[in-house]
């Protein structure tokens, strides 16, 4: 396991309180790359979320099976966008931006931002 991966797993699990960062209901079981590794997605706390299930079950399975909805909710980030700038809509955290130090910041909703 590479150093970045080890560090990121530790930070992300702590951020999540070990719970799934999508549903917040059950313990997470797997690390999900918001931006795919093959598209330059890194092992960093902005790009990794801790999800229940795996590639076919739970929230990790949901993300894999519903790419469009996963993009709307920030769990999938296309290669041309920066994970640090795309909020996730999480039942655990709310609507937040993820930072590399493991903190989360509330993201203003669109209405508020346009005022
Ligand atoms: Zn879940």
Mean pLDDT: 93
Number of domains: 1
Q: Tell me what portion of residues adopts beta-strand conformation.
A: 15-25%
* Order of H and E elements: HEEHHEEEH
Q: How far apart lie the N and C ends? A: 46 Å
Strand order of the largest sheet: 3-4-5
What are the distinct ligands in this entry?
zinc ion
Query: What is the count of DSSP helices, taking H or I runs of 4+ residues?
Result: 4
Shape, per Cα inertia axes: globular
Total beta strands: 5
Range of helix content: 25-40%
The main pleated sheet reads as:
3 strands, antiparallel
Which parts are unreliable, with pLDDT below 50 for 5 consecutive residues or more? none
Q: What would you say about this model in short?
A:
One of its GO terms (molecular function) is endonuclease activity. With 115 residues, the protein is α+β, with helices and mostly antiparallel strands.
How would you characterize this protein structure?
By secondary structure, the chain is of the alpha+beta class. It has one domain. It is built from 4 helices and 5 strands; from the N terminus they run H-E-E-H-H-E-E-E-H. It has helices spanning 3-16, 58-65, 67-72, 110-114; strands spanning 30-33, 48-51, 88-90, 94-98, 104-106. The termini are far apart. The mean pLDDT is 93. The structure holds zinc ion. Zinc ion is lined by residues 20, 22-23, 26, 51-52, 58-59.
Write the layout of secondary structure elements.
Layout: H1 3-16, E1 30-33, E2 48-51, H2 58-65, H3 67-72, E3 88-90, E4 94-98, E5 104-106, H4 110-114
Antiparallel strand pairs: 1-2, 3-4, 4-5
Bound molecules: zinc ion (ZN).
Zinc ion binds at residues 20, 22-23, 26, 51-52, 58-59.
């Amino acid at each position: 396991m590479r150093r970045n991966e080890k560090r990121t797993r530790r930070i992300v699990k702590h951020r999540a309180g070990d719970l799934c960062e999508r549903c917040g209901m059950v313990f997470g079981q797997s690390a999900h790359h918001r931006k795919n590794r093959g598209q330059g997605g890194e092992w960093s706390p902005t790009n990794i979320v801790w999800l229940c299930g795996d590639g076919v079950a739970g929230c990790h399975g949901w993300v894999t099976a519903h790419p469009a909805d996963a993009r709307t909710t920030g769990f999938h980030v296309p290669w041309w966008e920066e994970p640090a700038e795309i909020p996730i809509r999480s039942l655990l955290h709310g609507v937040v931006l993820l930072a590399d130090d493991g903190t989360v910041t509330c993201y203003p909703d669109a209405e508020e931002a346009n005022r």
